[in-house]
Amino acid sequence: MRCLTLSTALLLASLLALPAQAQSLRELQLQETLEEVAQKSSVGTPRPLNEDITDEGFSAEDSQLINFLSVDPDYAGQLQSEPLIVRSQLQSSVCANQQFRLLMDMGASLTYHFVLTGTKQPVLTHSFVAEHCQAF
C-alpha cells in the first residue's frame, strides 16, 4: 500500500511539474525568437526614419522587444508635450503589424524607448502587449 501511495505521489508531482516545464519552454522559445528579431531588425542601424527620428536598433530583454530611437531636443519636446497622441500613433502602428502582433500573442511586449540624440537621456517610453490590440 505504501508503494502505491509513493508512486501515486510521484505521478502527481510529475504531473504538477509539466505546466511549469511547458511555461519555461515557451518563455525560452519566446526569448530566442525575440533575440533573433532584435538582431535582424538592428541590421543597418543607426538609420534615420525621418528628419526627426533615428532608429538606433533593437534589443531583447526578458519578454520585451525594445526599439531604441533617438530624437533631437526640439522633437523630444513635442513628444513629451503630447504623450497620448504619440502612444495612439505607436499603438496603431504596432497593432497593424502582423509580425509584432504574433510576438505579442506569444507573450512579448513591444517597447519604444526614445532618448536624446547622442545621449542615453530618456525622453519617452511606451510599451504594448497583446491586450492593447484587442480593439484593432
Quick recap:
This protein is an alpha+beta fold. It has 4 helices and 5 strands.
Keywords:
single chain; alpha+beta; 52% helix; 136 residues; 4 helices
Q: From the alpha-carbon coordinates, what is the Rg to the nearest angstrom? A: 21 Å
Per the principal axes of the C-alpha atoms, what is the gross shape?
Answer: globular
Q: Give the helices and strands as they follow along the chain.
A: HEEEHHHEE
Which stretches of 5+ consecutive residues score pLDDT under 50? none
Would you report the number of β strands? 5
What is the terminal-to-terminal distance? 58 Å
Which structural class fits the helix and strand makeup?
alpha+beta
Count the DSSP helices: 4
In terms of DSSP E residues, the strand content is 25-35%
What about the largest sheet?
5 strands, mixed
Spatial order of the strands forming the largest sheet: 1-2-3-4-5
Helix proportion range: 40-55%
Reconstruct the topology from this structure:
Blueprint: H1 2-41, E1 47-48, E2 53-61, E3 64-71, H2 73-81, H3 83-96, H4 98-105, E4 109-116, E5 122-128
Parallel strand pairs: 3-4
Antiparallel strand pairs: 1-2, 2-3, 4-5
